[in-house]
């Protein structure tokens, strides 16, 4: 396995390229996990990382570690703390899993350069860990070991994507909003009419998921390295969930991928503009928020009109106290007494059901449909020197890597799943599109036309960005342009199928 970092647009090994490995954290199917590192070395709940300054300080393009930290140029993909309590149980079932930390450096051209990977296993006591550190290499055994380390990181990220970013943060958390809307808002209520297209087919698809995907012995348990503890892990991470942090600007600020800037329409400015998910997402977010604001101001003239809307208050109470009842006493919930709180809530909800879900779902076949690029589990630990396993690795590194990947059945099942999930339904309706007779209010129709026009302008910007060679994260070595947040508004017709472009209104698959 030689020259892993020399992938070119003409070859078929772009997935081995370090730049592509890093780019997928910004423009792949799980672009919401990476964050700017706040302290070095990284600290967990029970331990401090074993990564040393000497591991990375010679790879910071002339900057010192202190300078790089002060300039917010070191990033982390962290799959350590939440996994460590589960690793022993996971590995007892025959897979070989680590908890991982990956550090990356933001270069002057806005690409990310992997610096180091730390892979950890539980130690002999509950609060100790056994960690190994891997550094980038382009030749020899070092290059092969580095590639193995990246595979383990990607397996971590694959499980987090399916169980948290996809299932938990879109499908699952939206359900209480749908149920409360059906129970508390009359079909004539304006907010019911606003939200109705964003709930299309979600309860049905979630029911199917519970029967086939996330059930005991289901497809995710058969494919992901987390196996039978998959839903337990997802439930554990629900404890960290906050609805207000699913607003895109808040999420970017939390991960330090953006700074507050009141001069920008969304109130935030990206830390660097070549973050495809962030750049496209903020424009979609702002278009949704403008539409929701315009809509609400037609029906709500002041804050009292929200405060004394009994249906809205009953709706919000059910969401807080029943739907997300185990979080009822959290202080971050909106009081729902102002128009601005209603607008922020509705914008966040529509964002989750449409754009956020599209960004983490419809690109699965493009990236995870080729298992070496995105393995869902590893069947071998990385060998240590002076062991029989290391001798086996030295005899044939390529075979060792292939043997480390999931078995044929699991890979075939995983590929089939990504193909099904990446298809748009034949009756899909896209963001900014509705039936002609959805309302007879002329002012609302004018506001909706404004929303539609804004989305079509965003489409043009996305096409331009993807053609801009200066924006290296838009396509990367794999030459896959970022289109997961392309609205598809200008071509609203049932097109369905694999590879269809557009942001569906709802979580319909």
From TrEMBL:
<dbReference type="Pfam" id="PF00305">
    <property type="entry name" value="Lipoxygenase"/>
</dbReference>
<dbReference type="GO" id="GO:0046872">
    <property type="term" value="F:metal ion binding"/>
</dbReference>
<keyword id="KW-0444">Lipid biosynthesis</keyword>
<keyword id="KW-0408">Iron</keyword>
<dbReference type="InterPro" id="IPR013819">
    <property type="entry name" value="LipOase_C"/>
</dbReference>
<dbReference type="InterPro" id="IPR036226">
    <property type="entry name" value="LipOase_C_sf"/>
</dbReference>
<dbReference type="GO" id="GO:0016702">
    <property type="term" value="F:oxidoreductase activity, acting on single donors with incorporation of molecular oxygen, incorporation of two atoms of oxygen"/>
</dbReference>
<comment type="function">
    <text>Plant lipoxygenase may be involved in a number of diverse aspects of plant physiology including growth and development, pest resistance, and senescence or responses to wounding.</text>
</comment>
<keyword id="KW-0223">Dioxygenase</keyword>
<keyword id="KW-0479">Metal-binding</keyword>
<comment type="similarity">
    <text>Belongs to the lipoxygenase family.</text>
</comment>
<dbReference type="GO" id="GO:0034440">
    <property type="term" value="P:lipid oxidation"/>
</dbReference>
<keyword id="KW-0925">Oxylipin biosynthesis</keyword>
<comment type="pathway">
    <text>Lipid metabolism; oxylipin biosynthesis.</text>
</comment>
<dbReference type="InterPro" id="IPR020833">
    <property type="entry name" value="LipOase_Fe_BS"/>
</dbReference>
<dbReference type="InterPro" id="IPR001246">
    <property type="entry name" value="LipOase_plant"/>
</dbReference>
<protein>
    <recommendedName>
        <fullName>Lipoxygenase</fullName>
        <ecNumber>1.13.11.-</ecNumber>
    </recommendedName>
</protein>
<keyword id="KW-0560">Oxidoreductase</keyword>
<feature type="domain" description="Lipoxygenase">
    <location>
        <begin position="1"/>
        <end position="509"/>
    </location>
</feature>
<keyword id="KW-0443">Lipid metabolism</keyword>
<keyword id="KW-0275">Fatty acid biosynthesis</keyword>
<dbReference type="GO" id="GO:0006633">
    <property type="term" value="P:fatty acid biosynthetic process"/>
</dbReference>
<dbReference type="GO" id="GO:0031408">
    <property type="term" value="P:oxylipin biosynthetic process"/>
</dbReference>
<keyword id="KW-0276">Fatty acid metabolism</keyword>
<dbReference type="InterPro" id="IPR020834">
    <property type="entry name" value="LipOase_CS"/>
</dbReference>
<dbReference type="InterPro" id="IPR000907">
    <property type="entry name" value="LipOase"/>
</dbReference>
């Amino acid at each position: 396995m030689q020259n892993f970092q020399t992938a070119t647009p003409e070859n078929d090994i772009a997935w081995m390229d370090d730049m592509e490995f890093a780019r997928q954290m910004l423009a792949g199917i799980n672009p919401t996990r990476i964050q700017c590192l706040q302290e070095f070395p990284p600290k967990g709940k029970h331990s401090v990382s074993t990564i040393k300054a000497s591991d990375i300080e010679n790879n910071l393009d002339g900057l010192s570690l202190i300078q790089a930290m002060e300039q917010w140029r070191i990033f982390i993909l962290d799959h350590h703390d939440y996994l460590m309590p589960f690793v022993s149980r996971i590995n007892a079932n025959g897979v070989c899993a680590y908890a991982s930390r990956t550090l990356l450096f933001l270069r002057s051209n806005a690409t990310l350069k992997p610096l180091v990977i730390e892979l950890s296993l539980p130690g002999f006591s509950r609060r100790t860990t056994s960690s190994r550190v891997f550094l980038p290499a382009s030749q020899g055994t070092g290059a092969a070991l580095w590639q193995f380390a990246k595979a383990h990181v990607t397996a971590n990220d694959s499980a987090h994507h399916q169980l948290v970013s996809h299932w938990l943060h879109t499908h699952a958390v939206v359900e209480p909003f749908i149920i409360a809307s059906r129970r508390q808002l009359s079909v004539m209520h304006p907010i019911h009419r606003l939200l109705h297209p964003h709930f299309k087919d979600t309860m049905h698809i979630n029911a199917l998921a519970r029967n086939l995907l996330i059930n005991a012995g289901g497809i995710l348990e058969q494919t992901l390295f987390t196996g039978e503890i998959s839903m337990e892990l997802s439930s554990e991470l629900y404890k960290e969930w906050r609805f207000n942090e699913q607003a895109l600007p808040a999420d970017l600020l939390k991960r330090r991928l953006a700074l507050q800037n009141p001069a920008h329409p969304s109130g935030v400015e990206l830390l660097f503009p070549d973050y495809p998910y962030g750049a496209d997402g903020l424009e979609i977010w702002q278009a949704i928020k403008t539409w929701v604001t315009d809509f609400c101001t037609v029906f709500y003239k002041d804050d009292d009109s929200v405060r004394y809307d009994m249906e809205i208050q009953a709706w919000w109470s059910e969401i807080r106290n029943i739907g997300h009842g185990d979080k009822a006493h959290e202080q971050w919930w909106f009081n729902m007494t102002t128009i601005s709180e209603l607008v922020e809530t509705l914008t966040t909800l529509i964002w989750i059901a449409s754009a956020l879900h599209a960004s983490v779902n419809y690109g699965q076949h493009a990236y995870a449909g080729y298992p070496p690029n995105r393995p869902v589990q590893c069947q071998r630990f990385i060998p240590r020197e002076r062991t029989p396993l290391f001798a086996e690795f030295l005899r044939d590194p390529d075979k060792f890597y292939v043997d480390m990947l999931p078995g044929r059945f699991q890979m075939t099942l995983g590929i089939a799943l990504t193909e099904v999930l990446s298809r748009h339904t034949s009756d899909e309706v896209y963001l900014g599109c509705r039936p002609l007779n959805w309302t007879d209010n002329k002012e609302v129709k004018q506001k909706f036309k404004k929303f539609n026009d804004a989305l079509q302008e965003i489409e043009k910007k996305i096409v331009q960005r993807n053609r801009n060679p200066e924006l290296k994260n838009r396509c990367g070595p794999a030459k896959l342009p970022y289109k997961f947040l392309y609205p598809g508004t200008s071509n609203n017709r049932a097109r369905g199928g694999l590879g269809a472009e557009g942001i569906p209104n709802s979580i319909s698959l």
